[in-house]
Amino acid sequence: MVIDTHAHLNFNAYKTDLDEVIRRSLDNNIWMINVGSQYETSKKAVEIAEKYPEGVYAAVGLHPIHLSKGIFKTKIDKEEIEFQTKEEEFDYQKYKELAKSKKVVAIGETGLDYYYRPKTKKKLEEFKNKQKEVFLKHLELAQELNLPVIFHCRFAHDDLIKILADSQNSNKSTGVDLLPSGVMHCFTGSWEQAKEYLEMGFYLGFNGIIFKLDLDEIIKKTPLDKILIETDCPYLTPPPMTGRNEPIYIKHVAEKIAKLRNLSYEEIARVTTENAKKLFGI
């Protein structure tokens, strides 16, 4: 078995063949966690998960890019697509109700994203503060429900590490460590930043980005019991595949990690599956 710990089959990229993609994955013994990015996609992730007795799970959360209105660009199938983001306020109670489903195994994805940013210093500060405020609310929700967190971080690792470290130190001063467990999804930071997350007990998630960025040394140095694998589909399709990504392509990520660690594919599949089951309570 292999578990794709970060998929987005709840996105429109799969609106015409969702069940076929899931069945193809399950037939190949590949399980998945569909991750929400807004309330509607979080709700869809839960609905999908509840249709399947096993192998399909959900995470609910509000991605930081949806906290501000604007036009963003993303690349899918080598085609530039512009999409208008829908601004959303984080409604704690609504997400809490969604997260009560037995198929919800995590809160997220949530975190900080400074890739798209306002141009003025004042707006940039407001932009960052809003993301930090909503991120802390996600941490609170995860603590209340005793669920792990799926962290998203882009060009903001130093700020994210500071928030997590401050939360951990604050909790320790009271004698209770309430910082939730979690995974740094699609990790692309430095080894120094990786060590900070690892020392706080977090996992690192690797996907098709490892074929585009040089993360070899980080993958080699990260303890095996702290590695998770994911696709982030429909994005980051690993070679030699092209077009839309999907959970069945997770094997290419596992194969590269196995090669870097001088281990068999079967061993990486086994260890990462055990890690995922432990973190997400699957």
Characterize the structure shown.
There is one protein chain. It is built from nine helices and ten strands. The protein has 282 residues and is an alpha/beta fold. The chain has one domain (2-280): TIM Barrel. It has an eight-stranded parallel beta sheet with strand order 1-2-3-6-7-8-9-10. The protein has a two-stranded antiparallel sheet with strand order 4-5. α2 runs parallel beside α3 and α8 (250-260) crosses α9. It starts with a strand and ends with a helix.
Topology:
Layout: E1 2-7, H1 18-27, E2 30-35, H2 39-50, E3 56-60, E4 71-76, E5 79-84, H3 92-99, E6 104-113, H4 121-145, E7 149-154, H5 157-173, E8 182-184, H6 191-199, E9 203-206, H7 216-221, E10 227-229, H8 250-260, H9 265-280
Parallel strand pairs: 1-2, 2-3, 3-6, 6-7, 7-8, 8-9, 9-10
Antiparallel strand pairs: 4-5
Helix pairs in contact: 2-3, 8-9
